[in-house]
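Progress note, sequence design subtask.
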């Protein structure tokens, strides 16, 4: 998870009403009027809080006729809540990549040409992660790239830059929002 998203998650949950809303939604989906009634608040207040929770991906909406039902996105809640714990307590998830330098070099030699082109993306997950980590070495931390720039960068490795881009996002090497891409710190990469 990108650091700015992690901060936004914790800022959003810094409001007791939002935590109370999440606690209500853990049991079952509810509509705004019901949430307002249970918490003793007005519906516009609930609308405000639901927008904040939706922005960070903690609630989902489902419309049934004229009523919108909100439900808790448990997976996003768990991932976001654990992200900071993993970031500050676990040893770097990249230790596996660092400790076995010879295997890493073997993967790079087998899957990249001498001029740096990717022959093919490895099918085996461990090797794919090594290849992706090698590809992102030329991206700078803290720089935001638009989609055209990231495509141009990835095209130097392989003509199927869309697949590379998708793999980088899925494995948390980069974070994407509104067609803008930013490197995640290596501690956030999914390497297992």
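Output:
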């Amino acid at each position: 998870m990108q650091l700015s998203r992690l901060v936004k998650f914790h800022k959003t949950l810094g409001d007791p009403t939002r935590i109370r809303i999440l606690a209500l939604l853990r049991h079952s989906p509810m509509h705004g009027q019901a949430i307002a009634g249970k918490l003793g608040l007005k519906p516009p207040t609930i609308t405000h809080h639901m927008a904040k929770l939706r922005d960070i991906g903690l609630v989902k909406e489902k419309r049934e006729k004229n009523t919108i039902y909100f439900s808790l996105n448990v997976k996003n809640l768990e991932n976001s809540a654990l992200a900071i714990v993993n970031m500050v307590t676990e040893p770097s998830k990249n230790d596996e990549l660092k400790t076995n330098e010879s295997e890493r070099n073997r993967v790079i030699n087998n899957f990249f040409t001498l001029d740096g082109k990717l022959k093919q993306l490895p099918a085996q997950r461990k090797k794919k992660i090594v290849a992706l980590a090698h590809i992102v070495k030329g991206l700078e931390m803290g720089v935001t790239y638009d989609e055209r720039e990231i495509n141009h960068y990835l095209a130097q490795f392989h003509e199927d830059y869309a697949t590379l881009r998708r793999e980088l996002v899925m494995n948390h090497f980069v974070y994407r929002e509104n067609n803008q891409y930013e490197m995640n710190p290596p501690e956030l990469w999914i390497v297992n």
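The chain has two domains: 3-76, 91-188. Work on this subtask will continue into the next period as scheduled.
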